[in-house]
């Protein structure tokens, strides 16, 4: 490390840190500033983050050592040439002060760096050592970039895999819910089918009973009209109030409700048919005195 460079930075930063008021130093930047190239910021020190660094002059030596160390490390990434660096201070009222210095990678047998202006040893061995070090730095930079890219790709794949696992779990849950819903729906359809079969069987049995009852109700001779049982059942059905029918429907089960409704329907139908037959018979009867047989022996009608 050059004592001249150290003294130059110590003088510059001591004066900057001693400023007060609006010229108080609030930030220090280390920039890589090659001629005709855009400046590249290597590091910065901010008062808000480390106020003791700007107020305690005992830490100034450490700051200068960090600046020179970072500049040497950056210079070490190049093979040859002179590299210019700038230490820039920012004041409270946006003023700026700069101090520039130049460093060159000149590796001796021990591989140490020397600042610009200091003569470096020369010779085939030193030149070969420089080339080897430059090659090693190139390979190191390439491997770091390659492994960094691979690490980013791996992290992206890991994130995508986690998302896919989460989506797979969600899809499995939805599939299980759909399967459960399908089984419940199939069971409900099966129950309805069984209920329909039971109702069909009950209706068939009711039709058989109704056929027998209707045959008994409509059989025999006598005047045309509804049978007494049909009339009685019809009047019973007409006498039921709405609340009584609702209560009766709550007491009876499904088969009994169907049988009750069919009986009421058969009774109403039988009563209507009996009334129609009676009305037709009355229409076919002859009027009074018409078609009567004359008395024998020419006797007058009574």
Layout of SSEs?
Layout: H1 3-17, E1 25-32, E2 40-46, H2 51-55, H3 60-75, E3 83-91, E4 96-104, E5 114-115, H4 124-218, H5 228-239, H6 242-251, H7 254-284
Antiparallel strand pairs: 1-2, 1-3, 3-4, 4-5
In a few lines, what is going on in this structure?
Helix content is 61%, strand content 12%. The chain has seven helices and five strands.
Instruction: Write the element-wise H/E pattern from the N-terminal end onward.
Output: HEEHHEEEHHHH
Query: Main β-sheet: number of strands, strand sense, barrel status?
Result: 5 strands, antiparallel
Strand residue content: 5-15%
What is the count of β-strands? 5
Mean pLDDT rating? 76
Separate helix tally: 7
Give the N-to-C terminal Cα separation: 167 Å
Going by helix content, strand content and strand pairing, the class is alpha+beta
Gyration radius, to the nearest Å? 58 Å
Inertia-based shape:
rod-shaped
Strand arrangement in the largest pleated sheet: 2-1-3-4-5
Low-confidence stretches: 107-122, 220-225, 289-293, 298-302
Helix content percent band: 55-70%
Give keywords.
disordered C terminus, 302 residues, 7 helices, single chain, 5 strands, alpha+beta, 5-stranded antiparallel β-sheet
